[in-house]
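A protein record pairs a chain with a discrete description of its three-dimensional fold. The shape at a given residue is found from the number at the same position. Here is what such a record looks like in full:
>
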Amino acid sequence: MATMTSRVDVRASRALGYRRLATPLTQLGRWLTVAAFSLPVTTTFATAIATTACAPRATEDPSTPVQARTSETTIGAFAVSTENLNVDKVGLRDGFLKPDGNRDLAFTATINGPFKALFVVSTNVKGEPVYGLRADTLVGSDEIPPELGGVIDTGKMTIGIGVVEDGKFINADSGAARGGSGPHSLTLYVANTATLQAGSYVRVYVKTEDNAILSGPITPY
């Protein structure tokens, strides 16, 4: 009887031990099951992020001429007008389209196609923007295109341009000026800041509807 009782106790003890061992093993199995299902999802998500980040982005060919990127707009001509320093049409501020008691700079420009802004800028003999005249039809916080260089970066920091077509100003009250399709024969009036002197060079730039910047002929002043 003692031997039988001893064997029963041993079996009971072993069974109890198995149950105690089975509990953490069961929990471990459940955890591994969850991890097994979660891992592919996490890996797939991470792979998708890495693939997106590393995917090549379309870039514009820098060798393409700026004017070739715009099919509608071209600059036909730009010159110093015979009215230069002989008229008083505008003031220094954007939208100041009336005499201010000082004679103005005057230029003529022919633009074919739509435009959303005009710039008259001092350049060197190579046509590169330099310190000097900075006039445009941008206003307020409109940003100056980086192609024009310089430390001036918004329209409110430059002097305006009075744009006349068919004998009347086409500027909005703010001083901004736009043109639609077709040819435009323009006269551009700029307040004289004495930055242009004999031997200087000046150039007109046009911002098109698709935000390309076109450069006009390099013009001796």
Observations:
- The helical segments are 2-54.
- Residues 67-220 form a domain with the Immunoglobulin-like fold (CATH 2.60.40).
- Residues 2-54 form the longest helix (53 residues).
- Confidence is low (pLDDT under 50) at residues 1-70.
